[in-house]
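Changelog-linked ticket: thiamine diphosphate example.
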Amino acid sequence: MKMNLVQAINLALKQEMEKYPSVILLGEDIGKDGGVFRVTEGLWQQFGDDRVIDTPLAEVGIIGTSIGLAIAGMKPIAEVQFDGFSMSMLDQLYNHAGRMRKRSQGKWHVPLVFRVPHGGGIRALEHHSESLEAFFTHMPGIKVVTPSGPYNAKGLLISSIRDPDPVVFLEPKRVYRAIKEEVPEEEYTIPLNKAEVVQEGSDITVIAWGAMQKVVREAVAQSKYSVEIVDLLTLYPVDRKTLIDSVKKTGRCVVVQEAPRTCGYGAELVATINEKALLNLEAPVQRVTGYDVPVPLPKLENYYIPDATRINKAIENVMSF
Amino acid sequence: MKMEMFQILNEEGKIVNTRDMPKLTNDEIKAMYEYMVLSRAFDDVALKLQREGRMLTYASLLGQEASQIGSALAMHKEDWFAPSFRENGVFITLGFPMDALYQYWAGDERGMTIPEDMNALPVAVPVGTQIPHAVGLAWASKLQGKKSVAVVYFGDGATSKGDFHEGMNFAGVFKIPCIFICQNNQWAISVPRKRQSASDTLAEKAFSYGFEGVLVDGNDVFAVYKVTKDAADKARAGKGPTFIECYTYRMENHTTADDWKKYRDPAEVEMWKRKDPVERLRKYMESEGIWNENYEKGVWEKAKVKVAEAVKKFEAVEPPKPTDMFEDVYAELPEELEEQKKDFE
Ligand SMILES: Cc1ncc(C[n+]2csc(CCOP(=O)(O)OP(=O)(O)O)c2C)c(N)n1
Ligand SMILES: [Mg+2]
């Protein structure tokens, strides 16, 4: 069936809830209202108040109780309404979710999933447009997953739900309704350490994830170069083999990231490429990123988020190095 | 814990509590009414502009005018104001330019330029996060031997957050001149008040922090004015904080991105319509002989003209420059950012 990313996630949640009674959803306005992005639409009606839980307005409570629920054998899928409001939850994620296995000498683990509508581009209010993947990937013990379209969203979410470790699941909110794809009704999984070469090419590798995938694909559609596009899908643990093989083949690379530049996830990729493929490079790897400023409100937002012009300019720079 | 709801003006516009009725001149009462009408006119046009795509997501204050204007009028010029995102009525009453408010809600951050002589914080979107800031502002005023207080606004939903607990606790422990105005409008988007707390009232929470909580009819402008003024006098006298629960109702959608029909009973909305704060004051003024049809027409016309002027002014503003995003991030732009800014040359 053709569906968008919202419907694909909704279907994955529904099927996993039907299959596993321990799966419960926690969040704000996820019940009768179906979530502010309608991702949980219909689930409260099907599964009731005990499994689709509108919590008090308290993000630390949501993630903190999810940790306890998970340790005690439930499978909580916690939602935060918008990326910016996840900042208060970092304490629980960093100090507890990611370390419980270690701190309890392997006795307890925290198999929760934390769903985060992520990134900008929807003309929203302040704090509704943040790209925070680097905060999460910097936390030992936590996996970080980010789909780029409906098909991979369903498979990745099912894998995340079945994973024994805490998974932060970053949903590119500007893609929620922007792409429709064929998504199988039956369940399938996509492993949490596999990147995808979505377009083969021989001149240059462009690496992107989440919402930036769509931007990259559109940007290079008319490129005069043979561009290879890698979609990371899982940011931690990242599929280093796929991206290094690609860079070794093309010898050139551009990394595209929506988040601010400094200490962004892209910097980690560049370091990895330098460590593993420096001698294969024909030019320094370039980054296209947001700026080191608070994400501007909608009037200036489009100047902040990487676009086709900036991506093609970076490709040109690398090609003509 | 059972708490009495403090009320002066009932739903029929009658004074039910003459003892506590503040001494207000007719002109002061009219000013209250006119600010409430102006806020309503501003709000109405904001919703219209949003529908036409001329503004972005907007949170209406419809139904909460008495809570906002009543409390704002009890503040002194030098007092601190820490808003959430629904306090346009307070902003307007304190003299914040309406064109700037529209500009801000249209996605242009230059609209949040706070006037020179106004001690206001910018709009806080992350729920409840402004509460400890206000406690800090008021604490500074105490440490500096000043008479100013801080007034912080937030909703029923915000009382669930740790920020609320920590702010309230500091205020109690250090006897800080902070006034907590909780507009309990019964809903946090689709989540009803009962889902935020199992306690009967929100006001009673204050007592566990060691200070006074007041439950007030939030659609009664006299009552809200009176309790806020008393709280401010008390704070100025060094007697510490007060928590005020304004019991009111969000008549509109949560924001323009919401549809209340998905989760609220229309009968509940109808019931609250009968408690309308503006209509209530109007009835009182009519019975006192300070309201008639002519006056009403004049008040609305004046309000509409002011609002129309604000719309014209905000829509005439030049769009911001892309490089504006680098302004006001640091006192001095670091070299790294200078370089990033060059992308726009
Ligand atoms: C920390 C945080 N979580 C979630 C949101 C999304 N959100 C915006 S307003 C709101 C409900 C707020 O309810 P309440 O505090 O009662 O204020 P009201 O909107 O009713 O004025 C929510 C959940 C937010 N802005 N900040
Ligand atoms: Mg509320």
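Closing comment: Example verified and attached. Chain A has a mean pLDDT of 98. Residues 5-19 of chain A form the longest helix (15 residues).
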